[in-house]
Specification:
It is a single chain. Helix content is 12%, strand content 44%. By secondary structure, it is mainly beta. The chain has a single domain, classed as Lipovitellin-phosvitin complex, beta-sheet shell regions. The strands form two sheets. Strands 1, 3, 4, 5, 6, 7, 8, 10, 11, 12, 13, 14 and 15 form a 13-stranded antiparallel beta sheet that branches. Strands 2-9 form a two-stranded antiparallel sheet. 30% of the residues are buried.
């Protein structure tokens, strides 16, 4: 069985460049195939489109409803820290290999301009990246954009992206992506890719507790070295509660296209996260998001093989990080 050292680093790079809100977990296993076929027709809608599929409780006019909307003010800056932890174990007969990765990303977006309609232009910037990759029990490889002694050449492309605007996005108050511009040269990413828009897209209508809405997405998965396949995903959100001005939203993602090849399902390993999102109704911004994956695919690369993946992603809003100048001034003051 070929060694898989740093097998997940390309996934981390995509996450960093696109500020993906989604983990990239395994697709649903065989037990979910029936559910996939039932939802496949729903996923044939336009990629990224949000459809209303609210619970029956929404027809009860006596229930309190909530209109979920973002608010953007020109010049505002919102900082986040995103921590991804991924552990993938591959087995063939008695041979077992494990790749463990962790990425800590400090990033922010700032509002370039906003209009009376609520539409706004956002620019996304990575402030700092810290990565750790380990194969089995070997010493881990560490990269830190803030530490020049921990910047291996293999991570040079990531280092070039730090501290510079990556994308310019035009969004509306529901979080829909209207337009996208790559600010670092190169081709602009597909707007239907769930890794591009880091905002949850809200439905048009107000929601009562227990109501749900759905979003269809499309991802491109390599089948061979030259051939790629478009796979439909169906993401479902549910308004679980609103307490102290914070809405708690549940999220699940399933593969809606029929995928029977275990090797292709393995390549979907980080595409179907489930978790919880917290949205501040006062600031009208996401303040916390936690998603995860725990999947196993049997026969991933033929008889006697198995791939197991466990992933967690925590994204939380933070105060503006200390600048390098401020950090130096603080260090000097402590030595006086």
């Amino acid at each position: 069985m070929p060694r898989t050292t740093f097998a997940l680093l390309p996934f981390i790079a995509v996450t960093l460049v696109c500020f993906s809100p989604a983990l990239r977990p395994f697709s649903a296993v065989a037990a979910e195939e029936s559910e996939k076929s039932e939802t496949a027709s729903a996923a044939n809608e336009a990629e990224g489109e949000v459809t209303e599929a609210v619970a029956e409780s929404a027809t009860d006019e006596n229930k309190e409803s909530y209109l979920l909307r973002y608010a953007f003010e020109t010049g505002n800056v919102v900082h986040f820290k995103v921590t991804d932890k991924n552990k993938t174990t591959s087995r063939k007969d008695r041979i077992r290999e494990t790749v463990s990765n962790q990425s800590d990303v400090w990033r922010h977006f700032w509002v370039v301009n906003s209009e009376e309609t609520g539409e706004a232009t956002l620019e996304l910037v990575i402030d700092r990246v810290r990565l750790t990759a380990q194969f089995d029990e070997n010493p881990p490889t560490v990269f830190d954009s803030a530490d020049k002694t921990k910047q291996p050449d293999r991570f040079a492309s990531i280092l070039k992206s730090v501290g510079k605007p990556l994308n310019r996005m035009r969004v509306n108050t529901r979080g829909e992506l209207i337009s996208l511009q790559n600010l670092q040269g190169g081709p602009t990413a597909d707007q239907s890719d769930p890794a591009v828009n880091f905002l949850v897209v809200f439905p048009e209508e107000p929601l009562a507790i227990g109501d749900t809405w759905k979003q269809s997405l499309s991802v491109e998965v390599p089948v061979t070295n030259r051939l790629k396949q478009d796979i439909k995903l169906l993401r479902t959100y549910k308004l679980k509660s609103v307490k102290d001005g914070v809405a708690e939203i549940g999220m699940t993602t399933i593969v809606a296209s029929p995928v029977r090849d275990p090797a292709v399902r393995t390549r979907l390993m980080l595409q179907t996260p489930s978790g919880t999102i917290r949205f501040d109704m006062k600031t009208k911004q996401i303040v916390h998001r936690e998603t995860g994956v725990d999947e196993v695919i049997v026969g991933a690369f033929g008889a006697g093989t198995l791939v197991e993946a466990k992933s967690t992603r925590i994204e939380e809003q933070i105060d503006a990080p200390e600048t390098e100048t401020a950090a130096e001034e603080k260090k000097l003051s402590q030595t006086r």
